[in-house]
Amino acid sequence: xxxxxxxxxxxxxxxxxxxxxxxxxxxxxxxxxxxxxxxxxxxxxxxxxxxxxxxxxxxxxxxxxxxxxxxxxxxxxxxxxxxxxxxxxxxxxxxxxxxxxxxxxxxxxxxxxxxxxxxxx
Length: 121
Hints:
Layout: H1 14-19, H2 25-35, H3 41-47, H4 50-61, H5 69-74, H6 89-116
């Protein structure tokens, strides 16, 4: 499941959580990608500490291209979460589609921004 929508408005909110040890490297990469969009990607590139940005860029480099439907269909990532209620199969499948789409969109937005600009270091 995606974090609550209000937590996905700014990928920079995950930097202090990672630095404090509240989230793992994998969670940082996933949350950053889930929350990246056209409105915040340039600020993320300019503000994210270089070592953390490199973690996200390394993740994106290993992902299928946006046109590679078969690659995205077979791509998997793991997330451990606690559900507060039982979900129907349809609800679970819808949430999974949303998670995958948000992750893929974040990768697409980040790649496009990098292609247009030199990443600040």
